[in-house]
Amino acid sequence: KGYYSSALDYHEKSFQISLDLGDSTGMANSNLFAAIIHEYRLDYETAIHYYVEALRIYEAQGKKINIGVALLNMGDLHYEMEEFDKALLQYRRGLKEFLEVNDLRRTGLSYNKIGTIHSAWENYDSALFYYEKCKVFYDSIGNNSGIAHLNINMGNFYKNTGKPDQAMRHYEKAIEAFR
Known about the structure:
With about 180 residues, the chain is mostly helical. It has 9 helices and no strands.
């Protein structure tokens, strides 16, 4: 817990230096990191504030990848809070940004996260659809870490739909991808 306080102290210093230098990207990045720290501390209201501030700066700069990353992080926060509608909205907005700049890794990640929302809603056909879209992107770039995480999600999907053998196959694929 003490590490979070130290991290927030560094955020304040970093933000001030960026402000003094007129470095808006540094200010946005500092806000993004502060949001993550507050999220870890379960201070969701403050985390949202910092995410919104970071997003506002990134949007003013037109930095699509940074916008998308901030949106995915905001989506993750809403997911943790079980606000799945809000999480899905942020994931879709992030996906749009990544598609526009042809960021294949983060496009795949967005599809994986959207699939996870549908799985949480027990909308399994849609979940599988998005997991398969994710797989196409991850396979195309050889993203082993992403493939591993996708297989964990797919294993959970098959476990939740009463298909333990298929679940086990995906868990084994995840282990292989992590190696």
